[in-house]
Each structure stands twice: as structure tokens, then as C-alpha cells.
Amino acid sequence: ARNLVEGQGFVYNPGVQTLGTTTPLYTLLMAGISTVTGGQDFPWYALTVNALADAGAAILLFLILRRVTGHDWISGLLGLLWAVSPRSVAFAVGGMETSVVILWMLAAVWSYLQVGDSGRTARPYVYVGIFCALGFLTRIDTVLWSGPLLLYQLGESLWTRRDQPLLKRIPWATWIAGLVVVLPWLVFSWVYFGSPIPNSINAKTVAYLVAPLS
Predict the structure, then answer these.
(1) In the chain, fewer beta carbons within 10 Å around the N or the C end?
(2) pLDDT band, very low/low/confident/very high, at 119 (cuts 50, 70, 90)
(3) pTM of the full structure
(4) Which is it for the CA torsion 79, 90, 41, 201, positive or negative?
(5) Is the pLDDT of residue 142 over 60?
(6) pLDDT, average across residues 118-136
(7) How far is 102 from 28, CA to CA, in rounded Å?
(8) What does DSSP assign to residue 22?
(9) pLDDT tens sequence across 149-163
(10) How many Å apart are CA 136 and CA 132, to the nearest integer?
């Protein structure tokens, strides 16, 4: 983010045009805050963004569970538990993008829950696609949750609209919205780096040693 603000380009090492981050959106967010504020206190930018993201996540957890259970106090307890969870706090204060990733995940789930209340409007479908795409741009492995969500949405749409032609049963609004958000980055990374796959993935396979299938 600092190199980007200082005109060195979207690079980790100046002069080496390699994609060195698995979280391009978080990088752009940090660079954007730096540009607006005129400073470069990136650790504090990350703490502030993560605190706001976790607050949003707590609210979304409350809304999602209240939608499921109808009980305010149970839903509020879930939001409170997330706010004080040692694991969530540890990731937030560590400056990682995890808090923002979880915010996008919960926002996509909340948007999906609104589909049944939306009637014929495509707005919730669009939001699902946007939030899934933002999650992907924040961290690639979010496909582990957005993939099943989108597949379930597709299956449900095909089943509930089985009296309609096949093409009208596909949730195009979600797919197109997600593609509109992701496509500019994919094109840029292909042109700028030669590939949208971060080189840091290779480094993480060596740095993070975990048991098979864990």
C-alpha cells in the first residue's frame, strides 16, 4: 500500500512487478485511506478498518439470527460473543484482513436471506453477487464459503422456478453483479502482473505447515 501511494506501483518490492499479496482489495483500501488522510500510519488504518468491520459483523450476526429465531436477546448474545471472541479480536488487532472478509461473508448471507422478501426486485440478488465478489477480492479462499452459497442459490432458483424456461431460472443478477466487480481486477492483474494468481500463495505453502486435510 505504501509503494502504491508513493508511486512505486502495485508491488511489494519496487521494480519487481509481481503480485505479492493475496488481499488486493485490502491493499487498495489501505492505500485509499493513506491518500485521503495524507499519512502513512498503516497499522492504525488497519486497526480502525477492522474494528468497524467487526462492529458491522456483530450487527449482521444479530440481524441474521433474529431472522432465524425471532428472538432479540439470543441474537444480541451472538453479536456480543463475536465482539469479545479472543480469536476474532486476535485477527483484528493483528492487522489482517480477516475482519473485512467475515463482514463480506455475513453481508452476502444477509442479502441472500432478503431474496424471499424482495418480490420481483433483483436488488438482493445483486447484493449477493457484489458481496461475494468483494470477499473474493479481499481473500481468494473466500470461495470456500461463497461457492456453496452460490451453488445453493442456483439450485433453489432452478427448483422454485421450475415452471419457467431454464434461462429465466438462473440468478443472472447475482452472477453479473459479481463479475462486474471482479472483472476489472482480473483484467488489470493479467496485464500488469501476467497472472491474477498471487505469487505469495507459493510462499504460504512453504511458510504455513499444516497437517494433511486440516
Answers:
(1) C
(2) low
(3) 0.88
(4) negative
(5) yes
(6) 86
(7) 18
(8) S
(9) 999 989 988 888 778
(10) 6
